[in-house]
Amino acid sequence: MEDSDVIDGLNIRFLKLFGMWKAVNEYRNTGKRNLIIKIYIFGSFLLTVPAAIFQTQSVFTIEFDIQKATFMYMHTLPAISLCCRIIVFWFRMDSQCKLYDLMRSDFFNVPERLRARVREVYKDTNRLSNFCCLVPFIWNTGIEIWFIAFPGVSVEYIQHRTGSMSAVTTGKWKILSGWYPFHVEDYPYYQIVFVYESLCLLWAANVMAMYFSLFYQILMCLYAQFVVLGFRLSNLKVDFIDSNTRSFKTSDENETNSRINKELNEILRDHQKLLRYAEKLRSIYNPLVTMTLGIGILILIIGAAQLLLGKTSDPSFLFQLFQIFSFQFIEMSLFCFGSSLIETASTDLHFAVYCSDWYRADVKLRKAIQMMMVRARKSTNLTAIAMYPINMETLGSICQFTYSTAALMSGMVE
């Protein structure tokens, strides 16, 4: 797929920057995974496996309480999220790459008289898509800079202490909360650990944002296609504006019936085509969304518990906690927001039909369009655990559940 084939206004420079645009196109053409994809997999597991081994070993080596345990594993969960995304993309790459057809500007056969206006619709919807994909990159960059410039995890606390980390004010500080089977505060172990954790943070933050963009742009392209389909339906008129003369044009009755019938047939076929892609996307994204929401809920609970249990006013610690907390909350919010947009756009087709001149078509097509209206009453959205619909109401329920669980944990400890 060439750059000129992409729908108007969609920014793919992030995928190009990380080489994934080339990787996807090569797989679509040859069916083979190129070196770039393998490098991301190898690099991710090379950096995360040692940390996972040490974290598991720490359970049997150092002393824990609930506050220390939740704090130590709060930094581990994003790494698990990254590995899950890589696994989903690797094993569902064939289906995922087929979904990139949603990015094509010729996904629908748009009438000549509407093409200029459809391009504007694409540009308007893709501004939102570009912004949503930019947010994780900006936020993750802020996390990288702050965590590396101002390391906020006490080595002494991880190695020897329990309770609140804010009570520890001496010793050296590192970036992440991982435990290591040697004296980290000694030379050269401290320097080695600092470099290793910097690499882990830089790699994970950038690759996670890239994979988010990889998945999220397809989601927003599905939304854009639903919006365009609704626009075509609402502009199905007997009298229409000629794109060349910019004046109303009225055809004779036979020509009008022929044109409306032809456009209605194309819209019905495009609607069925779009529903097939939506069903495929829901199937592929179900494990991804389930994992994102599941890990997100855990991080939100841990973050809220740390605030309730820590009882500290240290601005540096609170800011780092807020960054981790908000990082996962942003991704969860964007997935819920994107699913809500698709849900709204898919059901808006029902109203778009009323804005058209569908009732002037012949009897068979009127019956077909009525069936389309009935189908549009059932919304299209993402699901978690294969059946739970995802939308902004879901996000509200997650926030309520997070606070209740964190408050319960705090009360039990006290």
From TrEMBL:
Keywords: Cell membrane, Membrane, Olfaction, Receptor, Sensory transduction, Transducer, Transmembrane, Transmembrane helix. Belongs to the insect chemoreceptor superfamily. Heteromeric odorant receptor channel (TC 1.A.69) family. The keyword DNA damage does not apply. This is Odorant receptor. The keyword Zinc does not apply. It comes from Nezara viridula. It is a multi-pass membrane protein. It comes from the Eukaryota. Pfam families: 7tm_6. Its main location: membrane. The chain crosses the membrane at residues 35-53, 73-91, 211-231, 284-309, 321-342. It is found in: Cell membrane. The lineage of its organism: Eukaryota, Metazoa, Ecdysozoa, Arthropoda, Hexapoda. GO terms for molecular function: odorant binding; olfactory receptor activity. GO terms for cellular component: plasma membrane. One of its GO terms (biological process) is signal transduction.
